[in-house]
Structures are given as C-alpha cells and as structure tokens.
Amino acid sequence: MNILVTGGAGFIGANYVRLLLAGGEDRVVNFDLLTYAGNLENLAGCEDNPRYRFVRGDVRDRAAVRAVLADEKIEAVVHFAAESHVDRSVEGPEVFVLTNVLGTEILLEESRAAGVERFVMVSTDEVYGSLGREGLFVETTPLAPNSPYAASKAAADLMCRSFFKTFNFPVLTTRCSNNYGPYQFPEKLIPLMIANALEDKPLPVYGDGRNVRDWLYVQDHCTAIDLVLRRGRPGGIYNIGGCNEMQNITLVEMLVDRLGKSRDLITFVKDRPGHDQRYAIDASLISSELGWQPSVDFAAGLARTVDWYLANRDWWEKIRSGAYMEYYAKMYGDRGGATGP
Ligand code: NAD
Ligand code: DAU
C-alpha cells in the first residue's frame, strides 16, 4: 500500500513510520509541517530507505494535501498530525481548532476525492472527559471534552463520523490513553521529569499529584493503529489503553528513584485549569475484534524509556534550548515553586 502518514515527524508518528519501515512492503509518505513538535531527527536513519519519502506540508493547505495524495498515489491515510499538548491549548486554543478540526476536515475531503480506501483518525481518550474513582471509558461513553485540545479532537472525531455516515467514506477512529517512550517531546510529563531530574532541576507536579493516567508504551499504540488500519471495521471506533493506571505523583517518584535522584526535587505547583482527574480505558473491543494486546509491561517500558533518554541526551538538550525555553518560562513562571530550568 501507499500510505500517507500525517504528523510522522512527531512522537507517535515517528514511531509508527519506523514500525512500517521495519517490516512489510508499504511505501510510506510522511506529510508533516515540522511545527515545534516535529523533528526530522526522530526519523534519523530512515531517509535513505527507498520505501520512505518526507514531504513538508500543512494539513490546512488544501492544495498541498491534494497534490501529495495524487502525486504519491495514496491508498491509505493514517492521521496523526495535530497540536497535541493540553497546556498549550489553554494558552492559545485557536491553532488547535485550525489544525485539529479544519486540518482534519480538509484531509477527509481531499482523501475522499482522491479515492483513499482506508483513513485512520488517531484520536485520544481525552474526548471522553474525566472519570471519577470508578469505571472505564468504552467506545460508547458520551463525548465530554474539557480542554480546548480535547474539544478540538472531539470535533475532528465527529467530522470523521459524519464522513462515514454521509459518504460511506471508510474512516476508522482510534482513541488511546497516554503514551510514553522514545522521541516524546520533553514538555510532556515523563520526558520533562526525566530531563529536569537529570539536570537537578525542580519537578513540577500539578495540584496534589493524584490525577490518574493510563500509560501505554508507544510501540504498543503503533501496533494497535496498524491492526486497525489493516483489519478494522470501516466506521469503527477502537479504544486503546495499557490497563495501567497510575497517579502522577507515584510515577514521578518511580522516575526519580530510578534515576538515583532526590525526591526533594519534586515541587507541587498550581494545577492545570480544568485538569481531568482520571483516565482509564476499556480496550476489550480491539482485543476481541482484532486480537490486540499490549506487549510491554510498565516497569520494562519505563526502564527502556529512561535508558533511551539517558543515551540520547543530545536529542532532548537541543530541543530544550532556544524557543522551548521561552515556552517553559511562560508556562511555569507563574505557577509558583522554583520550577524554571
Ligand atoms: P506530537 O505533538 O509529538 O506530534 C505532532 C506532529 O504533527 C508534529 O510532527 C507536528 O509537526 C505535526 N503537525 C502539527 N501541525 C501540523 C499541520 N498543520 N500539518 C502537518 N503536520 C502538523 O504529537 P503526538 O504525541 O505524537 O500525537 C500524535 C497524535 O496522537 C495526535 O493526533 C494526538 O492527538 C494523538 N494522541 C496522542 C497521545 C499521546 O499520549 N501523546 C495519546 C493518544 C492520542
Ligand atoms: O490521554 C491521551 C493524551 O495524553 C493525549 O491525547 C495528549 O496528546 C497527550 O499530551 C497526553 O495528555 P496529558 O495532558 O494527560 O499529558 P501530559 O504529559 O501533559 O500530562 C500528564 C499528567 O501529568 C497530567 O495529569 C498533567 C500532569 N503534569 C504534566 C506536566 C507537563 C504535571 O503534573 N506536571 C507537568 O509539568
């Protein structure tokens, strides 16, 4: 198949491109704008693969989308490209609407016109909102997004639904829990804590640190997406999760201990506005329908991840210099606690 991967220079997209190139015979075209989160170093070593091509482009640019679909004879689309960080969506929601909603709509329309046969929308469990102490998100849980990021993803999901219902366009939607692993941008919880700890900087935990996330190793997310692409039911929605709930504070303590640093680095700071309390996924549908199971347990995945950040210090140090520092100062400067790097 000729597969268009949007956002393939980001965290999960790059891991997915690597998965596709590691096996099979598919041709992979990575269409990415290279925003602050897109980094071609995530694909180092892939450039010379004859089955891989990078095209710099914006999913909001209809002409560019049309051209890449036609020029590359694209048969399937896996759509990762998005603004993905909740905190940034609190600071500036507009680009989330433009990229995540309008960009998805343009990609859907052009893909349909180009005769694309499979379209995977990579969505998130955040569209369901927040859970109390009990219960799990299932595919029929009503959408109740709480952040501008989550709202933009929910809107994009509904646009996908409408393309299936109205045009019978073969969209498949995945909703995954929190990912971790190599190449995650160091503003998200796990890489931020690793990098700060290695530099003996404060570790900013929001609120009381008791919010719960359900962590999944990124390669397990990628294998799930790939199964959905090849064997999923058109119009289907598939929850993906690690069955691995953890309070943020427990996770941060595990990281600190593993790195041999002092827990005194942990600093409680002002909470994220609208901070979702708990996410937890029921992944039994994808398991029973497509036979997917996560393969990396959390202790092993976290050890691998820490080792990767230790071995790839250049990668994250480069990112944490320059423009990223301005973002960091803005986001953490007024939260209280001496959290600046
Ligand atoms: P990321 O922020 O690391 O990467 C996003 C990529 O999209 C970047 O390479 C960026 O350059 C590209 N991009 C942004 N705007 C673009 C545009 N207008 N046109 C083309 N490319 C553009 O994100 P991620 O963490 O890898 O997440 C990928 C997808 O998976 C997102 O859709 C996100 O909502 C979803 N998701 C993420 C997680 C998670 O834990 N990270 C969990 C579930 C779902
Ligand atoms: O659930 C899937 C979602 O997971 C994806 O859709 C998003 O793209 C992805 O960014 C992630 O969203 P979260 O908001 O859960 O991830 P983040 O890494 O930003 O935060 C994880 C938890 O850690 C959350 O409860 C907030 C908290 N946190 C985060 C940061 C950056 C802190 O306590 N301190 C921090 O500095």
List the helices and strands and how they pair.
Blueprint lengths: L1 E5 L4 H12 L4 E6 L19 E5 L5 H10 L4 E4 L6 H6 L2 H20 L4 E7 L23 H20 L3 E6 L2 E2 L8 H10 L4 E4 L5 E3 L1 E2 H14 L5 E4 L4 E3 H11 L7 E4 L14 H7 L7 H14 L1 H7 L3 H11 L8
Parallel strand pairs: 1-2, 1-4, 2-3, 4-5, 5-6, 6-11, 7-10, 8-13
Antiparallel strand pairs: 9-12
Helix pairs in contact: 1-7, 2-4, 4-5, 6-8, 10-11
The chain binds nicotinamide-adenine-dinucleotide and 2'deoxy-thymidine-5'-diphospho-alpha-D-glucose.
Name the descriptors.
single chain, 341 residues, alpha/beta, Rossmann fold, seven-stranded parallel beta sheet, two-stranded parallel sheet, 12 helices, 13 strands, 16% strand, binds nicotinamide-adenine-dinucleotide, binds 2'deoxy-thymidine-5'-diphospho-alpha-D-glucose
Structure description:
By secondary structure, the protein is α/β, with parallel strands linked by helices. It has one domain: NAD(P)-binding Rossmann-like Domain (Rossmann fold, 3-Layer(aba) Sandwich). It is 42% helix and 16% strand. It has a 7-stranded parallel β-sheet, with helices on both faces. It has a two-stranded parallel ribbon with strand order 7-10. Helix 2 packs parallel to helix 4. The chain is globular. Nicotinamide-adenine-dinucleotide binds next to helix 1, helix 4 and strand 5.
